[in-house]
Amino acid sequence: MEAEELLQKYAAGVRRFIGVNLSEANLSQANLTRINLRNACLSVANLSGANLSRANLKGAKLNVAKLSSSNLRGANLRDADLNVANLIRADLSGADLYQASLIRTEMLRADLSGADLRGANLSGAMLKEAKLPRANFQGANLSEVDLSYAQMRGANLEQATFRRTNLRWADMSGASLRNSELRQVRLSGAKLIEADLRGANLRWADLSGASLAGADLSGAKLSGANLSGADLTGANLLDASLVYADLTRATLTNVDWMGADLSGATLTGSKLYGVSRFGLKSEGTVCDWVDLSPNGDGSKIQRFRPEQVEEFFNESLPTVRILVDAVLDPTAHVALAQVYYHIARYFPGLKRAPNIDVSDRRTVITFRLDNDLQLFSMAYITVLPFRDGTATQRNIQNLVQLLQTRERQNLEVGHFRYIQRLRVFFEQTVERANSLRNNEAESLSPEAGQNFFRAPTHVILSNSKNQTIEVQHHPQFGKQRLQAANRINPVESPYPEVCNQILPPPFVIFDFVKTTVTDLNPDPL
Question: How sure is the predictor about 486, in pLDDT bands with cuts at 50, 70 and 90?
Fold first, then answer.
């Protein structure tokens, strides 16, 4: 069919032209909205500037066709062949390109907003500066595609292939790239703000200067990746692999990276304010200095000797462990939850429920903390419901007082200031605890599960360097079974409370606290 004949029939109201051969036809600037050209042959045809909005081009052959500046809004291009076609500045917003073939297609500055490109083959295509917000590229082949400066906010790129793809300066904020294959991809300067990159393979990718603020990179593979100067503020890097990654001068403020592997990584000059260093693997990590200032302005620099690096990046979570010499039954479990609910109303720092491990002899209640500065205060409030609580609190107060009586001239300035902060926070805790006792005394002494709360306790504090100290060890702890065998009521034992417990020697207490001076989280409660 000739182009003139088609235009005449279209003007007469005909819309159905299934399977026609229009190879090399000139339909430039033609108005063919809603035309049905299913399975038609339009290879090498000139359709530049044509209006093909809502057209049915399913299965059509458009290889090497000229479609620059054409209107293909909402067009059906499923299974169509557009290899080496010219779609520069074309409007394909909302178009259906499911499993279409777009090999080496020119789509510079084309608009594919909301387009469906699932399973499409775009190998070698030119999409520089293209508009692709909310486009669906699930399972698409984007190998060797130039997507530099492309707008891809909110796009679905899951399971897409990005072999040797150029994504420099592309905006993929909020995009989903979960489990995507991104090895050696160029992403320098790209925006991936709040993007979903869970489980993505980014080995040896270039992410230098990229913005990944708030991105979810949990479980991502970033071994050998270049993240120098990247912004990862508030990103999720849980269990991520960063082996030999380059994080030089990267912004890692408030990053959550527990379980991450930093073996051999370079972190010199990185910004680490508000970052915990718990549960990291850091063997061979390279770092001359880090910026711990709140604003990342270099006002608080910490430098390291080589032997200090692994220790700094390999801390343990501080914990308060309350060992109760009784088995937690369901009744006591409910009562314990209610008690800690009331306590948390007075102490916002008690934001996590404890881990509870119940054996056939005793119960271990573990509170995991964000920083060492919380240890004494958190221990003071979490023992409130137990019969031993008063004695334990007295021991903790004696420990804090011991720290306060140390002569200032014998302490480094940073250590002295840290103890002053610890004292202030601890005094605030004592005031709140007294207020809680006065206002909600009944909530701290539940009738249910009384035997559990009256049982002897053993309270242990562990700091971020995995050092431990005991602040309570009831003399009857561990003797419950012996008493039961001899038919002795533990409540009537000769040791109802711990009196004059021998505290750790002063040098042990100071060594326990001294290791926490570089704590990164300033607000313990």
Answer: low
